[in-house]
Amino acid sequence: MKDILTAPWMVEMIRTATNMYAHGWDERNGGNISLLLDEADVAEYLDLNNVLRTIPTGFEAPALEGKYFLVTGTGKYFKNVQYAPEVNLGLVRLTDNGMKAELLWGYEDGGKFTSEFPAHMMSHVARLTVDPANRVVMHCHPANLLAMTYVHTLDERAFTRTLWQMCTECIVVFPDGVNVLPWMLCGTNEIGAATAEKMETARLVIWAQHGIYGAGKDLDETFGLIETAEKAAEIYMKIAHLPRVNTITDEQMHLLEQRFGVKGRDGYLD
User: Fold this and answer.
1) Closest CA to 71 of 2, 120, 128, 141
2) Which H, E and C letters describe 167-198, residue by residue?
3) Residue 18 CB contacts under 8 Å (≥ 6 apart), including other chains
4) Active site residue 102
5) What would the DSSP string read from start to end of 54-75?
6) How far apart are alpha carbons 30 and 17 in whole angstroms?
C-alpha cells in the first residue's frame, strides 16, 4: 500500500484547508470540506475491507451508496489539518442507503465528520444530478459575503447582479449566479435539504449571516468560486455607502458572455 499522506488528493486537501484558514475564512473550527473519491484511487492507499468503525449519519442518501468521501472533522480547526491530518480528516464509505458511514482512515482521536455532513451529502447528490463532474462541496465564512447579507437584499437576482457588477470576471467565473438562504439553524437536515435544493441551480449558495457553500469539479475550482465571490463582496462593502458613478452594464456583461462563451443565468440580465 502507498502512504495515504502522499496521495495527490490528500496533499491538495491539506493545502486547501490551510489556505482557507490563511484567508480568514475558517476561524476556530468554522467551515468544512468534503471530497468525493473514486474507489480505485482509495484502493491504492487503504485496505477497503478494514473498517475501523461505523458512524451513523442521521439521514438517507441512496444515490451515494458505496461512495467514498474525504471529510473534515467536527470541532476541528483548519489550522491544524497540516500538522495532524489523521486526526482532523477522515475517509468514509457510505452504506445502508447513506445512513451509515464506514470509517476507513482518520479521526484518530475518536472524532467524526463535520456536523454539516447532511448538508454536504445532500448537496453532493444535487450537484451530481446536474453535473457528474462535481466532486467537491466546500463551506466557509468569508467576512465580506457575511457582511453583505446584513446590508443587501437577499433577493437572489439582485444579490447576483451586484456581485457581477463588482468585478469583470464574476459573470465568467459564476455565470449561474448565487443562490441565497435566509438564516436557518445550522447542522440540521432541514438546512441540508434547503441547501441541496438551491444547489440544483447554482454552485454557490449563501447562508445569510453565516457563510457560503460552494461546489465544483475539484478543490481548486471550488476555492476559486468562493474566492471570486468574496472579492466582489469586498469591493461592494467598500463602495456601498458611496454614490455609484460607474458600473459594469448589462450590455457589457453580454459582451463578456460572447467573449468567454458563457451564458448568464436566465432572466438575470436585461
Assistant:
1) 120
2) CCCHHHHCCCCEEEECCCCCCCHHHHHHHHHH
3) 78, 79, 81, 82
4) no
5) EEE-SS--GGGTT-EEEEEBTT
6) 11
pLDDT of residue 1: 83
* Strand, helix or coil for residue 47: coil
Task: Look at phi and psi of residue 100 and say left if phi exceeds 0, alpha if psi is from -120 to 50, else beta.
Answer: beta
193: Cβ contacts below 8 Å, ≥ 6 apart: 122
| Model-wide pTM > 0.70 | yes
The position carrying cell 473519491 is 37
What residue ranges define each of the domains in the chain, with the CATH number in brackets?
Answer: 1-115 (3.40.225.10), 133-270 (3.40.225.10)
The angle that helices 156-166 and 219-239 make with each other, rounded to 10 degrees, is 90
φ, ψ at 76 (rounded to 5°): -95, 145
What are 68's three cell numbers?
467514498
User: b/e for 137-160, b at 16 or more Cβ within 10 A?
Assistant: bbbbbbbbbbbbbeebeeebeebb
32-37 and 53-56: which strand pairing? unpaired
Catalytic residue among 102, 116, 156, 221: 116
**Mean pLDDT per 10-residue section of the chain, whose length is 270 residues:** 95 98 95 97 96 94 96 96 97 96 97 93 96 97 98 98 98 98 93 95 98 97 98 98 96 98 97
Give the angle subtended at the CA of 142 by the CAs of 216 and 119, to the nearest 5°.
Answer: 50
Q: Is the dihedral of CA 158, 159, 160, 164 positive or negative?
A: positive
- For 94, the enclosing helix (H) or strand (E) is strand 89-95
Structure-block grid coordinates of residue 74: 467536527
What is the rounded distance in angstroms from the CA atom of residue 140 to the CA atom of residue 262?
Answer: 26
